[in-house]
Amino acid sequence: MIAAFRRRWQQERFLPSWLGLLVNPFWHARRGLHAGLAEFFPSLSGRVLDVGCGRKPYRALVPAAEYIGADINSEVTRRLGVADVIYEGSRLPFDDGGFDGVLCSQVLEHSFEPDAFVREIHRVLRPGGTLVLATPFAWDEHEQPYDFGRYSSFGLKALLERNGFEVVAQRKTCADFRAITQLWSGFLYKITRSRYRLLNAISQVLLIAPVNLMGGVLALILPRNDDLYLDNLVLARRSEGLNGGGAHPSKRMTPQEL
Predict the structure, then answer these.
(1) Strand-pair category, 125-136 with 66-72
(2) Could you give the CA distance from residue 53 to residue 13 in angstroms, rounded to a whole number?
(3) Do residues 238 and 101 touch, judged by C-beta distance below 8 A?
(4) Which fold has domain 31-173+229-245?
(5) Domain extents for the chain?
(6) Average per-residue pLDDT in the chain?
(7) pLDDT band at residue 245, thresholds of 50, 70 and 90?
(8) Angle at which helices 2-14 and 27-40 cross, to 10°
(9) In what order do the strands lie in the sheet with 231-238?
(10) Helix (H), strand (E) at residue 4
(11) pTM of the entire structure?
(12) Is the pLDDT of residue 201 over 80?
């Protein structure tokens, strides 16, 4: 019973259902991220590396023949015991061109040297290999003091292209009123969080859940705003060299063209 509850709790943290509205203060962010990544996951096949894997929340959704999770050497990583490989956070401990695909979700913002980080991903991918990357745009500081950057859609594309990737597709999550209410929910979560689980649960149900619900309703009524959103998602292909550049601007490519 306890094990089943814990599994469901972890599911509601990363892949929340409607039940998550009552228990997850980041309900819109997680659902938007999951929906966006799910579009790109079919492009990851063969031998896939999850960089900054954490709990591997998306493992079951990636059609990989072999799935390897790597994370930095930290107390949290060691306590979780989920990563297949623990490394020191600079050079990925894998051979050149050893992977067909790389997943990197909500990690790039924690790299103080993003160009070097992206070049490492480029190195371990085979030529033509696939990268699925997600990183926040409108979000508060988190995992302090290891939170170093935010990227616009244009900045992220430029970062990838100058380090040997061809951007195939880009998506923005929650580019509507959900972005506003998610930031509001995150604010309420941080100022009301305490060491008492019961009080946290009460504040979630009474304060945060109604805000999340309002965001969902107003997102259906009000128009989108593609300039304000929560996360950037990118599907990219490894070019032959570090200066491979992107697709011709007149050609719009889709994930199915991989």
Answers:
(1) unpaired
(2) 15
(3) no
(4) Rossmann fold (3.40.50)
(5) 31-173+229-245
(6) 90
(7) very low
(8) 80
(9) 85-87, 66-72, 47-51, 99-105, 125-136, 231-238, 165-173
(10) helix 2-14
(11) 0.87
(12) yes
